[in-house]
Amino acid sequence: MPDPQQVAKNHWYRNDDIPGVPGPDREIQGYGEKPPVIRWEGGAKVAINIVINYEEGSELTFAMGDGRNDGMYELPFDVDDQRDLAKESMYEYGSRAGIWRLFRTFDRYDIPITVFGAAVALERNPRVAEKIRERGDELVGHGYRWIDHYEYSREEERELIALAMESFDRMGLTPRGWYCREMSVNTRELLVQDGRFLYDSDYYGDDLPYWTFVEGESHLVVPYSLAVNDCRYIMGTGFGSPTDFVDVAKRTVLQLLDDGDECGRMMSIGLHPRITGNPARAHGLAEFIAWAQQQEGVAFMRRIDIAEQFIEQVPRPASPAERPNS
To answer: Where is the NodB homology domain (predicted)?
Structure first.
């Protein structure tokens, strides 16, 4: 691997990436001016995918031997050298109260969702796994624990993926999609080598799924988004109130319905039980859902259904080895 300091010193003039740098190639251009004209369930132009990030109980804690406390807390306070019981209790709000308030909301409006689930979080609260099965929601693998995969070696990450999938299988939930907390340069290759995954969502660079190639094999990417994501309630600049969330979500739908072309697109809404599971924020979510259901050309869909309907309209491309005269 090139020495980073030497690269910084001598390659400031480059207009391309350095060959051999680990990880997927950057794909700058994408679909360009004319993306594929996709239509979703019922002929909808906009597919809304609500994602619940279920992580509570698998986050970093002194109680689990991690030697540090996790982030994404309601207040900008950190306890560095011991258990942060206040922060732990915020996470427990998500698993004790918030997740059930969200499920009641989805039941009321008959909304299918996707759950980005950490295996340990579901193991520690098996009633949530039962509810996912009962509702017919989709589970996407969110790691064995809610940890940054880039902190681990390639073989350690391979083991983490295997542990997670074994756990999901025991719960009767077999993901076909994957989304890490923070992917590593090895993640996508490991998923393709594993062979059980239709797609991954460790990407923020588009409003449509797209095909890429990994070690010569075609692989589907179904992008995620942090724009309409409740982390903005507590991290950085973002939502001061549920009104802000509703406004951003509505404006996203309106723009995608009339985006200047005929192309259909997807919209991801990222939620966390410990954040949007709080009453006022859940009320804002319900307000948006009720509004969106009244809009013509909008469908709420699971991520797996978006992937499969995309594949029907944009079939898997041949790999270089499968192409004539390759």
So the answer is: 85-301
